[in-house]
Specification:
264 residues; Hypothetical Protein, Haloacid Dehalogenase-like Hydrolase, Chain: A, domain 2; eight-stranded mixed beta sheet
Length: 264
């Protein structure tokens, strides 16, 4: 019996072409919770920066910044994986040398260190229902010197330089998300790591979880679950791993998947 459903955000729950969560998805998630099934979102976004449309879905748990943070429905952090000071210094030095766009994702805010105009996701998020609240300009670039350390970074820099400097790194992984944009996480960190920690916390087994996704960073979650749903708009690699391929997120894909597995 399925006890937990895990959903990616963009291209899965959130239709980024129409900039909305569709009514059939909202109703489906509500019905899952009414049946006592835990609903979890797994995303590269920070747990406090999902936006109103996603917050209104009232997730039981949030697996944020590619697995590095697990928070509950009240946005209280249960699990976190912090960078070291050496990690931060290395990335800061690289960003200065190559004039890169750089933002650090801390447990309280996303701090913009330099070249906000180069961070390719920034304008889209602040002009969406996420807004400005999660983001703080930090021109002094000193937030990491004031206590706790971050869990992730976003950097925009030439791919050739990223590979040259960090290609053999034993500490850091650079997850490419655009032409020059990367999410930086600790080596081995991914959505699957975060979800597996949550499964242990809640006593959930592989046979009791369904995961739903559409892109490369969802593959790690597919290794954990007996029920693996690929959205109709998913990449081929996700579809090959799926136990069920549903419709795309704009055409009731979440509803159809939950109906297929008799969850609603």
């Amino acid at each position: 019996m399925i006890k937990m459903c895990v959903f990616d955000v963009d291209g899965t729950l959130f239709d980024y072409y129409n900039n909305c969560v569709h009514a059939s998805t909202i109703e489906t998630l509500k019905r899952l919770q009414e049946k006592g099934i835990l609903i979890v979102v797994a995303t590269g976004r920070v747990h406090y920066g999902l936006g109103k449309a996603l917050n209104d879905l009232h997730f039981d748990y949030i697996c944020a910044v590619n697995g590095a943070v697990i928070a509950d429905s009240d946005q209280q952090v249960l699990i976190r994986h912090d960078f070291t000071r050496e990690d931060v210094d290395q990335i800061n030095e690289f960003a200065h040398q190559y004039d890169a766009g750089l933002a650090w994702k801390f447990i309280d805010h996303v701090y913009i260190y330099q070249h906000k105009e180069k961070i390719d996701w920034y304008e889209g998020q602040v002009h969406s229902d996420i807004g400005l609240t999660p983001f703080l300009d930090c021109p002094k670039q000193d937030r990491h010197l004031k206590g706790d350390l971050p869990q992730s970074a976003s950097i925009n820099a030439p791919p050739s330089k990223i590979e040259e400097v960090f290609g053999q790194s034993k500490r850091l992984s650079f997850l490419r998300c655009s032409e020059t944009g990367y999410d930086v996480v600790l080596k081995g960190m991914n959505k699957g790591v975060g979800i597996s920690e949550l499964m242990r916390l809640k006593g959930i087994e592989k046979e009791e979880i369904m995961v739903v996704g559409d892109n490369y960073n969802d593959l790690s979650m597919f290794e954990l679950a007996a029920y693996r749903v690929a959205m109709g708009n998913a990449i081929d690699e996700i579809k090959e791993k799926a136990t069920y391929i549903t419709a795309d997120c704009a055409h009731d894909g979440i509803y159809q998947a939950c109906l297929h597995y008799d969850l609603i």
